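Practice problem: predict the structure.
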Amino acid sequence: MTRVNLKNIAIVLNEPRYPENIGSAARVVKNMGIGRLVVVNPADCDLTRILRTATHAAEDVVVEMDVYGDLREALGSFQYVVGTTARTGSHRQSMNSPRRLAGELIHISQENRVAILFGTEAWGLTNQDMRFCDSLVTIPTADFSSLNLAQAVMVLAYEIFVAGAEEPRRFVSRLADKHELEGMYDHLRETLARIHFINPENPDYWMLNVRRFFSRIGLTARDVKIVRGICRQMDWYCGRHSQPEPLNEAGEQDQIEGSSSKNTSFRALPREGSCD
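Answer:
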């Protein structure tokens, strides 16, 4: 039976407010054999309180956890990002259940680093955070959909831990990581705004559909290089044709044939203090 490659799975907490939730997430990571714990811009990183809920068994997870100040930087090394949400809307389409997601990760995780991204306790992930996500997952509930952060982490981690597939392993090639993809999206945004394919007044909004399109495809690092090469060629063409053509001896512009004249890892943390 093929199972999820847990070493390639990471729990990512974006802007957690309470140290106890970080500690509880560390305990879940230890319980379910998840590869990493990543914390982004925590409001309070009191290690004493974190270790109290993590317990001594998960102390190594706390010591090895990575702490970042910026979400884009934190997700840079991951090839696949799953966003967790309890809300629906035009920016939150095609949501999986935890069990279905876990089944998809069986094959994706074999060659790709996967981040399970959780938002802050108060409001979860914002639409701005969602732009980094390749897929979304929501935990089904009855009338009240709000879960404690640590509870949500446990539900997802458990489903990933127990997921297995009887069929032979399906090969999924290594996807481009978020550092590569975000560089491509920055380049695309500048180029598409320059040629007025998207509205230059609010390019990030118009880029959402472009991001969704490429997320469905699943780009490799080679694909990203091809897209950026196309952007560079478009930038060159626009730059060349934005300049007036030189005048010939008759005082007229020469026409070019075929063209028109018209871009912190914490490996030795103390038991007391903070993550800073």
